[in-house]
């Protein structure tokens, strides 16, 4: 179930939306960080620039002594503050400030210096980052004013961690939301698929359940139900017409055959040649078989209830089928072999299953040449029963293997050989109501018909 969910279109759609939404959130968070960090950096630079301007003005007004007094006063007010001052001579000899020496880091083109500040922090054992700007006073004195940006860096790192956690939470919530949404969509789609499979299996009365929520799924279910109503109505109309034709024509054909039989009897009494009468009777018999097959297929396809279903031993059924057709195979000098390794049981109508197997074996004998080989096997594979009927006849071209299950379809376009093209159609109808899967395969040479069906139990034939 989880594997199907991950491969579903709804999950891929939700994942795509989550990816786009996550990218949008990531872009928004990056903009927030960029604007916040840049604003904080600009504020720090503006503070440093304002201090330099103030100290330069004080130097111009009160000279070197006034400047030293202001620096010492500011440092005494906040001896452990983040402000950095250093006043030196032309040869970088320290005059005042809280730095011991001029930083070794060269200034940039804009005059700013970024350097490491050793022995910083409350315990004087930490190394902080500092940012400062140098200024040359008249008299060739150098003034360095800056700030310890450790708190600024910490604040920026905290913002980054917060944004990462927020982005992760967004992805998790988006993933959970997409998963829940996908499950809901998949549940609605699975309900439609389940109903569709039941309709495919022959229950045309089934309809898709609606939740009356007025959403797109209800609209889709309503349209599909309307379409199914129309299809059922049309198919029922066609079936009624077919059944009516078959019923209406079968009766006069039966009467015609009876009269032909009476005519043949009269001809035999009067010693006339009954050949033409017998040919007409054979034609009538063929027509009656065709109509009977049509009616039987129609009854099978419209069967909704399964009162005749019971646990059927498929091994015993195949033994009966082979025993019935052994004389016909012997007449053509064909080798007919049955191999049953496991006694397989399934729920089904034994009469219908017997008819389907006889049709398949009859076709195999009919199209297998003299001294040909026909093998019938029954086994179990992957929890399913498997019946294989393989012959050494001409086989069926691959592009026509699905068409042969259609009514009246025949490989021989001239239709000169006996038959109506309904045998495999009846097999397909029986397979449909029993949940069997029919596959036509190449036997090299010949044809192999493979029937897979659900089983109720299986026992080894050697067991009691």
Structure description:
The chain is 55% helix and 20% strand. The protein contains eight helices and 13 strands. Helix 4 (216-269) runs antiparallel to helix 5 (275-301) and helix 6 packs parallel to helix 7 (350-367). The strands form three sheets. The chain has a five-stranded antiparallel beta sheet. It has a five-stranded mixed beta sheet with strand order 7-9-10-12-11, covered by helices on one side. It has a three-stranded antiparallel beta sheet with strand order 6-8-13. With 464 residues, it is of the alpha+beta class. It has three domains: 2-155, Beta-Lactamase, CATH 3.30.450; 216-301, Helix Hairpins (Orthogonal Bundle), CATH 1.10.287; 310-460, Heat Shock Protein 90 (2-Layer Sandwich). The radius of gyration is 47 Å and the shape is rod-shaped.
Tell me the strand order in the biggest sheet: 2-1-5-4-3
Give the CATH topology of the largest domain: Beta-Lactamase
Distance between the termini: 40 Å
Structural class: alpha+beta
CATH architecture descriptor text of the largest domain: 2-Layer Sandwich
- Report strand %: 15-25%
User: Taking Cα atoms only, what radius of gyration do you get, to the nearest Å?
Assistant: 47 Å
Query: So what's the CATH class of the largest domain?
Result: Alpha Beta
Number of helical segments with 4 or more residues: 8
Percent range for helical residues? 40-55%
The count of strands amounts to 13
* Largest sheet properties: 5 strands, antiparallel
Taken together, the total number of domains comes to 3
